Amino acid sequence: MVVPSLKLQDLIEEIRGAKTQAQEREVIQKECAHIRASFRDGDPLHRHRQLAKLLYVHMLGYPAHFGQMECLKLIASPRFTDKRVGYLGAMLLLDERQDAHLLITNSIKNDLSQGIQAVQGLALCTLSTMGSAEMCRDLATEVEKLLLQPSSYVRKKAVLTAVHMIRKVPELSNIFLPPCAQLLHERHHGILLGTITLITELCERSPAALKHFRKVVPQLVKILRTLVTTGYSTEHSISGVSDPFLQVRILHLLRILGRNHEESSETMNDLLAQVATNTDTSRNAGSAVLFETVLTIMDIRSAPGLRVLAVNILGRFLLNNDKNIRYVALTSLLRMVQSDHSAVQRHRPTVVECLREPDASLSRRALELSLALVNSSNVRAMTQELQSFLESCPPDLRADCASGILLAAERFAPTKRWHIDTILRVLTTAGIYVRDDAVANLTQLIGGAQELHAYSVRRLYSALAEDISQPPLVQVAAWCIGEYGDLLLEGSCEETEPLQVEEEEVLALLEKVLQSHMSQPATRGYALTALMKLSTRLRGDSNRIRQVVSIYGSCLDVELQQRAVEYNTLFQKYDHMRAAILEKMPLVERGGSQVDGEAKESKEAQLSETALVSTEPQASKLLDLLDLLDGTSGDAQPPPPLDPSPGGALVHLLDLPGAPPPPPSIPNLRVFEREGLQLNLSFVRPSGTPALLLIMVTATNTSGADVTHFICQAAVPKSFQLQLQAPSGDTLPAQGGLPVTQLLRVLNPNKAPLRLKLRLTYNHFGQSVQEIFEVNNLPVETWQ
């Protein structure tokens, strides 16, 4: 006996009544068999019922592809009940990846030309949901005719379909330009909302449409003013705000039309001020309208007073209880801090309060904004607040906070002593989180402040005696004790509390560092060198130092063993030269050609055959770059050894960019462009070193979203030598903010044609991006 097919309601009840997944699959398999049999029999009266059941099965995640052709048959049927289910099935079962979707083009065209509103609505909904580019081109004229139909129901759906067509086929813009001007006179809010969306899509995709619709700015201003001044309307008001969805859409369109256009911006200034002052922010609807108003004010050429008003609105948002509103306020203020720094500064106390937010996203945004607000006038107060935050902030924020404080101190330090104290406090609080160059920067700073040598060595000795678990702090302290240990023992510093230190205490502390399990090999190297230098600075017997040095002559660490062996040899064979060799380092000028000796000892990079220096700390990420160009340069001769003398090429190669180079005579080159991110190369060849090429990499961002965690890496053939200096930052603000620059130094002793391979990694629009490409079209002036 054949079991009869179930009705849709009975099928739903039976599926929901299944106690196990196996029972559910059994019910669905049986019913799908009945549905297939019915489709094969060609029963026209019950086809729509069978397809309705199949769509329910599809919604549960089971295969239903065998119903695609039945959808086409139902769409072609003259009965409305069939068309309704057929169009629904087409929207669910068909998409532009299926060739069958093209077969319904004629059916949709016929239904659009009918005068039945319900059928036209079905056809328009289906076209706007799954219409491919080919279908949009074929049916664009039909949709254009429906845009001016008397029925508001059809016009609204036609406008939304036109939006889908513009997104699929931007070249159809010219077809929809004339109807849009007429549709702006509509009183129906649904049609008006769709029209504003359509105009926005047209302006974003067509410069001609943007120019065309700038003429309707006064009309848009009039519509928005009417919405703002209209009283309560039951049909359109949400939380006391008159149609906030339409207001937000109009403000978004005004932002696009007023961007970089003085006349349009002037027309909408008064309206934006009215919206900003009259909108109630006690509910989310009002906050949404007000936030869109702020974004519009920021983007157009608005009056200075209006921009201050926008900043004040964001400042009020920071006091809101809603975390989302506070987050968007912090993000927007971060974008405005470059252009309206003084206005944003007024809200500095509120921003600092946000640092204590338990929410990680809010505290991170508040940290970024706080660092951006630091300047020469508030550096002391802001640094104190940031240091307090550093002591209690989550571990994932400590690296950013510590690096930000160090950069701010370097840029705006009022005195050298304050600068040293600030770095020392950061190293004491979060030493393991600071950047790799913090040690070299502090040693260079102390070395250049001759009047603070005694003060610095005493502060560092006290800090080291309290804590030896922070590697950067230990390294700087060891370097400073080795250089200025005689000042530590003199006790003549008036700027610190009296501190009596004996020679044995200093040596015992350095030995403790050497023996500690927390000390890294590089840290032990600093301590061993400090002991060796103290052998010429202390007045007592150096036998204890000699014994410690000899112990490490058999150390497992090769670097440490080599140092110990060399120092032992210095004691045994060249003791008469020890004092001259270990004398104090000369003063180092920032940006000069000298390199701080002790800081360089642990940081020195060997220029190998495939010279590649990265600004990223994890060397493992660069291994795949080392031989990017190996395949074509296998026969190249190794470069000649660099002259190690002070006047040689190595000193010039490691020069910091202290003096500005001469004006470039080599044309600039754009090597990368994607989604608003651009990478340009500019070239300079110093006259004194013809084999050296300086390449300045400049990255800019003109998109609407920030580019974060930006890293640029490079590789050259083996016949070249390459050094990458640290970039100016790793974040590119949106809308053409401050660029990120990085200097590449390429040594080309053989004057071979230069080829460069670049790898870019960054986050943009919430996605992680990696690009690897080769630059072969460098100007001939770069190597000839």
UniProtKB/TrEMBL annotation:
Annotated region (Disordered), positions in chain: 592-613
InterPro entries: Adaptor_Complx_Large_Subunit, AP1_complex_gsu, ARM-like, ARM-type_fold, Clathrin/coatomer_adapt-like_N, Clathrin_a/b/g-adaptin_app_Ig, Clathrin_app_Ig-like_sf, GAE_dom
Any one Pfam family match given in the protein's UniProt record, by short name: Adaptin_N
Keywords: Cytoplasmic vesicle, Golgi apparatus, Membrane, Protein transport, Transport
GO CC terms of this entry: AP-1 adaptor complex
Compositional bias (Basic and acidic residues): 597-606
Boundaries of every GAE domain copy: 664-779
Membrane topology: Peripheral membrane protein
Annotated localization: Cytoplasmic vesicle membrane; Endomembrane system; Golgi apparatus
PANTHER family: ADAPTIN, ALPHA/GAMMA/EPSILON
Protein name, per record: AP-1 complex subunit gamma
Species of origin: Lynx canadensis (Canada lynx)
